[in-house]
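Hi,

Apologies if this is the wrong queue. I'm a grad student, and the batch job for Alkylmercury lyase from Alloalcanivorax venustensis ISO4 produced an output file that my downstream script rejects. I'm not sure whether the problem is my script or the file. Here is the sequence I used:
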Amino acid sequence: MREIVNRLGLTGEAEATLHVALLRELVQGRPVTLERLAASLNWTTDQVVQMLEQLPCGTVEYDGQGRLVGFGITLRETPHAFVVNDQPLYTWCALDALMFPAVIGEPAQVRSHCPRTHKPVTLTVTPREVLSLQPEDTVLSLVSVATEGDIRSAFCCDVHFFASRSAGEAWSRDKPHASIVTVQEGFELGQAIARQLLDKAGSD
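Support response: The file is valid. Your script probably expects a header line. Output copied below for reference.
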Protein backbone atom coordinates (compact mmCIF):
# COMPACT_ATOMS: atom_id res chain seq x y z
CA MET A 1 0.00 0.00 0.00
CA ARG A 2 2.77 2.41 0.91
CA GLU A 3 4.56 1.72 -2.40
CA ILE A 4 1.41 2.51 -4.40
CA VAL A 5 0.68 5.71 -2.49
CA ASN A 6 4.28 6.89 -2.81
CA ARG A 7 4.48 6.13 -6.53
CA LEU A 8 1.31 8.14 -7.13
CA GLY A 9 2.89 11.07 -5.30
CA LEU A 10 0.12 11.15 -2.69
CA THR A 11 2.33 11.60 0.33
CA GLY A 12 0.99 15.02 1.34
CA GLU A 13 -2.32 16.66 2.12
CA ALA A 14 -2.36 18.88 -0.97
CA GLU A 15 -1.57 15.99 -3.35
CA ALA A 16 -4.28 13.82 -1.83
CA THR A 17 -6.79 16.68 -1.91
CA LEU A 18 -6.11 17.23 -5.61
CA HIS A 19 -6.45 13.52 -6.37
CA VAL A 20 -9.82 13.21 -4.65
CA ALA A 21 -11.14 16.36 -6.34
CA LEU A 22 -9.93 15.25 -9.77
CA LEU A 23 -11.47 11.79 -9.44
CA ARG A 24 -14.79 13.32 -8.44
CA GLU A 25 -14.65 15.64 -11.44
CA LEU A 26 -13.69 12.85 -13.88
CA VAL A 27 -16.72 10.74 -12.94
CA GLN A 28 -18.85 13.44 -14.54
CA GLY A 29 -17.63 11.92 -17.80
CA ARG A 30 -16.01 14.91 -19.48
CA PRO A 31 -12.47 16.30 -19.66
CA VAL A 32 -11.55 18.49 -16.72
CA THR A 33 -10.08 21.91 -17.40
CA LEU A 34 -7.49 23.37 -15.08
CA GLU A 35 -9.90 26.17 -14.26
CA ARG A 36 -12.67 23.76 -13.32
CA LEU A 37 -10.38 21.73 -11.11
CA ALA A 38 -9.09 24.91 -9.45
CA ALA A 39 -12.66 26.04 -8.74
CA SER A 40 -13.55 22.67 -7.18
CA LEU A 41 -10.51 22.96 -4.91
CA ASN A 42 -10.87 26.68 -4.20
CA TRP A 43 -7.30 27.06 -5.44
CA THR A 44 -5.84 29.32 -8.09
CA THR A 45 -5.10 27.82 -11.50
CA ASP A 46 -1.40 28.46 -10.88
CA GLN A 47 -1.58 26.38 -7.70
CA VAL A 48 -3.18 23.51 -9.62
CA VAL A 49 -0.54 23.68 -12.36
CA GLN A 50 2.27 23.73 -9.81
CA MET A 51 0.87 20.71 -7.97
CA LEU A 52 0.32 18.73 -11.17
CA GLU A 53 3.89 19.44 -12.25
CA GLN A 54 5.17 17.98 -8.96
CA LEU A 55 3.39 14.64 -9.47
CA PRO A 56 5.42 11.72 -10.84
CA CYS A 57 5.67 11.50 -14.63
CA GLY A 58 2.81 9.57 -16.19
CA THR A 59 0.49 9.98 -13.23
CA VAL A 60 -2.04 12.20 -15.02
CA GLU A 61 -3.51 11.83 -18.53
CA TYR A 62 -4.19 14.89 -20.69
CA ASP A 63 -5.98 15.36 -23.98
CA GLY A 64 -4.72 17.43 -26.90
CA GLN A 65 -6.20 20.60 -25.41
CA GLY A 66 -4.39 20.24 -22.09
CA ARG A 67 -7.48 19.05 -20.22
CA LEU A 68 -7.21 16.26 -17.65
CA VAL A 69 -8.79 12.97 -18.74
CA GLY A 70 -7.31 10.38 -16.38
CA PHE A 71 -5.82 9.77 -12.95
CA GLY A 72 -6.66 6.15 -12.07
CA ILE A 73 -10.18 6.74 -13.38
CA THR A 74 -9.93 7.62 -17.07
CA LEU A 75 -12.12 8.69 -19.97
CA ARG A 76 -9.94 6.61 -22.32
CA GLU A 77 -10.84 3.00 -22.95
CA THR A 78 -8.98 0.32 -20.98
CA PRO A 79 -9.82 -3.35 -20.28
CA HIS A 80 -11.65 -2.28 -17.11
CA ALA A 81 -15.00 -0.56 -17.75
CA PHE A 82 -16.25 1.43 -14.77
CA VAL A 83 -19.81 2.75 -15.08
CA VAL A 84 -20.94 5.36 -12.56
CA ASN A 85 -24.50 6.75 -12.73
CA ASP A 86 -24.77 5.35 -16.29
CA GLN A 87 -21.64 7.27 -17.26
CA PRO A 88 -19.13 5.02 -19.08
CA LEU A 89 -15.66 5.38 -17.60
CA TYR A 90 -12.61 3.15 -17.21
CA THR A 91 -9.88 2.42 -14.67
CA TRP A 92 -6.21 1.75 -15.13
CA CYS A 93 -6.32 -1.61 -13.33
CA ALA A 94 -8.48 -4.06 -11.40
CA LEU A 95 -7.46 -2.65 -8.01
CA ASP A 96 -8.55 0.85 -9.09
CA ALA A 97 -12.01 -0.53 -9.85
CA LEU A 98 -12.23 -1.92 -6.31
CA MET A 99 -10.77 1.18 -4.64
CA PHE A 100 -12.33 4.23 -6.25
CA PRO A 101 -16.02 3.79 -5.36
CA ALA A 102 -15.00 4.56 -1.76
CA VAL A 103 -13.19 7.71 -2.91
CA ILE A 104 -15.96 9.07 -5.13
CA GLY A 105 -18.75 7.95 -2.80
CA GLU A 106 -20.66 6.22 -5.60
CA PRO A 107 -21.23 2.59 -6.66
CA ALA A 108 -19.80 1.42 -9.96
CA GLN A 109 -20.65 -1.40 -12.33
CA VAL A 110 -17.38 -2.99 -13.36
CA ARG A 111 -16.88 -5.03 -16.53
CA SER A 112 -13.55 -6.59 -17.32
CA HIS A 113 -12.24 -9.81 -18.81
CA CYS A 114 -9.83 -12.54 -17.85
CA PRO A 115 -6.58 -12.13 -19.83
CA ARG A 116 -5.97 -15.87 -19.59
CA THR A 117 -9.37 -17.32 -20.60
CA HIS A 118 -10.91 -14.16 -22.14
CA LYS A 119 -14.10 -14.80 -20.16
CA PRO A 120 -16.03 -11.72 -18.98
CA VAL A 121 -15.85 -10.66 -15.34
CA THR A 122 -18.60 -8.45 -13.93
CA LEU A 123 -19.25 -7.01 -10.49
CA THR A 124 -20.80 -4.08 -8.69
CA VAL A 125 -18.54 -2.23 -6.28
CA THR A 126 -20.09 0.10 -3.72
CA PRO A 127 -18.18 2.28 -1.25
CA ARG A 128 -18.71 -0.50 1.31
CA GLU A 129 -18.87 -3.88 -0.45
CA VAL A 130 -18.61 -5.98 -3.59
CA LEU A 131 -21.88 -7.29 -5.04
CA SER A 132 -22.97 -9.53 -7.92
CA LEU A 133 -19.52 -10.94 -8.67
CA GLN A 134 -19.50 -13.18 -11.72
CA PRO A 135 -17.85 -15.64 -11.94
CA GLU A 136 -18.06 -16.09 -8.18
CA ASP A 137 -14.51 -17.48 -7.95
CA THR A 138 -12.96 -14.49 -9.73
CA VAL A 139 -9.57 -13.46 -8.34
CA LEU A 140 -7.12 -10.69 -9.11
CA SER A 141 -3.39 -10.33 -9.45
CA LEU A 142 -1.32 -7.98 -7.35
CA VAL A 143 2.35 -7.22 -7.93
CA SER A 144 5.17 -5.43 -6.22
CA VAL A 145 5.58 -1.92 -7.55
CA ALA A 146 8.55 -1.89 -9.93
CA THR A 147 11.37 0.48 -9.13
CA GLU A 148 11.27 2.11 -12.58
CA GLY A 149 8.55 3.51 -14.80
CA ASP A 150 5.32 5.33 -14.08
CA ILE A 151 2.61 3.72 -11.94
CA ARG A 152 0.86 2.24 -14.97
CA SER A 153 3.92 0.43 -16.31
CA ALA A 154 5.31 -0.31 -12.84
CA PHE A 155 2.09 -1.74 -11.39
CA CYS A 156 -1.22 -1.36 -13.21
CA CYS A 157 -0.30 -3.33 -16.35
CA ASP A 158 -0.05 -6.52 -14.26
CA VAL A 159 -3.13 -6.05 -12.03
CA HIS A 160 -6.01 -7.95 -13.65
CA PHE A 161 -9.18 -9.84 -12.85
CA PHE A 162 -9.09 -13.59 -13.59
CA ALA A 163 -12.16 -15.79 -14.06
CA SER A 164 -10.75 -18.45 -11.71
CA ARG A 165 -7.82 -19.04 -9.38
CA SER A 166 -6.40 -21.63 -11.76
CA ALA A 167 -6.39 -19.05 -14.56
CA GLY A 168 -4.67 -16.50 -12.33
CA GLU A 169 -2.08 -18.98 -11.14
CA ALA A 170 -1.35 -20.11 -14.69
CA TRP A 171 -0.78 -16.48 -15.73
CA SER A 172 1.47 -15.79 -12.73
CA ARG A 173 3.77 -18.83 -13.08
CA ASP A 174 6.48 -16.85 -14.82
CA LYS A 175 5.88 -13.71 -12.72
CA PRO A 176 7.58 -14.24 -9.34
CA HIS A 177 6.59 -10.72 -8.25
CA ALA A 178 2.87 -11.49 -8.63
CA SER A 179 0.34 -12.76 -6.07
CA ILE A 180 -3.17 -14.04 -6.69
CA VAL A 181 -5.73 -12.87 -4.15
CA THR A 182 -9.51 -13.04 -3.79
CA VAL A 183 -11.62 -10.11 -4.90
CA GLN A 184 -12.55 -9.51 -1.26
CA GLU A 185 -8.87 -9.31 -0.29
CA GLY A 186 -8.26 -6.87 -3.14
CA PHE A 187 -11.28 -4.84 -2.08
CA GLU A 188 -9.98 -4.63 1.49
CA LEU A 189 -6.60 -3.40 0.24
CA GLY A 190 -8.38 -0.86 -1.96
CA GLN A 191 -10.45 0.29 1.01
CA ALA A 192 -7.31 0.82 3.07
CA ILE A 193 -5.69 2.91 0.32
CA ALA A 194 -8.90 4.88 -0.22
CA ARG A 195 -9.22 5.60 3.49
CA GLN A 196 -5.61 6.80 3.65
CA LEU A 197 -6.23 9.05 0.64
CA LEU A 198 -9.44 10.48 2.09
CA ASP A 199 -7.87 10.98 5.51
CA LYS A 200 -4.95 12.90 4.01
CA ALA A 201 -7.37 14.99 1.97
CA GLY A 202 -9.67 15.61 4.92
CA SER A 203 -12.61 14.33 2.85
CA ASP A 204 -15.60 12.11 3.63
